[in-house]
Amino acid sequence: MALLQVSDLTVAYGRVTALTDVSLAVEEGQIVTVLGANGAGKSTLLRAILGAAPARSGTISFAGEDVTRVPAHARVARGLILVPEGRRILISLTVEENLLLGAHLRSDQPAIRREIDAIYERFSNLGQRRHMLASCLSGGEQQMLAIGRAMMARPRLMMLDEPSLGLAPLFVSRIFDLIRELNRDGLSVLLVEQNAGKALSVAHRATVLELGRATMTGDPKTLAADPRLQEAYLGEGAKIPAA
Ligand SMILES: Nc1ncnc2c1ncn2[C@@H]1O[C@H](COP(=O)(O)OP(=O)(O)O)[C@@H](O)[C@H]1O
Ligand SMILES: [Mg+2]
């Protein structure tokens, strides 16, 4: 059984239908990527999985439980964690306060401390700036902090909404390396991206959304070679790096 199973999901904002009959699964231990142009419905899909956008029809099950009618906060408590678009960290709090916020549902203080120190070890930039305001961080560092904060919630599935958007190339590579590392440590990931090449190079499965419909699903290498995807997301003659 899949960790996350989305079946025939339809989501509308008033009269605007953002998703139509979308189905998608994330198996335990997998990275699944959802690709699509601006406005395709990628953020809506993540928000609906989290419970922040209402499902008009269809079902969402997580860890063997139908959570379609479960409120967002209770889904978070079950380990469904979203790193939203635009890395919404709290810039008036320090780096450490942001990380502690990620652990606000937990009470295991010694483990929280150990995990925060492990994050500082992994990201020395954050460690050095732990008592500084998050507003002092670069965009790439803020994204690392947003992911670190999500880790502090002990996710069973981490959903990332365009984590590489607007970052300098060095940080883009570091973000994808990090996603791969976290996955190797056992984390399941649902990754929304416009950077199709990078996303396909880390993913086990991929789905393409177009105007709210899942039009292609499959093995990343197969999708990467598909001329429709090449044309739509990679520009003429573009090549996707081998995984
Ligand atoms: N809060 C909202 N109210 C009304 N329409 C929305 C809202 N959020 C998104 N939409 C519409 O839903 C569609 C999908 O948007 P979105 O999920 O943000 O796409 P993506 O993340 O792929 O860019 C778009 O047509 C967008 O205009
Ligand atoms: Mg979006």
CATH architecture of the largest domain: 3-Layer(aba) Sandwich
Q: Which whole number gives the mean pLDDT?
A: 92
| Beta-strand percentage range | 25-35%
Measured between the Cα atoms of the first and last residue, the distance is 26 Å
Structural class: alpha/beta
Q: What's the overall geometry? A: globular
| Total beta strand runs | 10
What are the low-pLDDT stretches, counting only 5+ consecutive residues below 50? Answer: 235-239
What is the total domain count?
2
The number of helices is 10
The CATH class of the largest domain turns out to be Alpha Beta
Rounded to the nearest angstrom, the radius of gyration is 18 Å
Describe this structure in words.
This protein is of the alpha/beta class and 243 residues long. The protein folds into two domains: 1-79 and 155-235, P-loop containing nucleotide triphosphate hydrolases (Rossmann fold), CATH 3.40.50.300; 88-154, no CATH class. Helices cover 37% and strands 26% of the residues. The chain contains ten helices and ten strands. The protein has helices at residues 42-50, 72-77, 95-102, 109-122, 124-128, 139-152, 169-184, 196-202, 220-224, 227-233; strands at 4-13, 16-26, 31-35, 55-62, 65-66, 80-83, 157-161, 188-193, 205-210, 213-218. Helix 3 (95-102) packs parallel to helix 6. The chain is globular and about 45 Å long. The structure holds adenosine-5'-diphosphate (ADP) and magnesium ion. Adenosine-5'-diphosphate (ADP) binds next to strand 2 and helix 1.
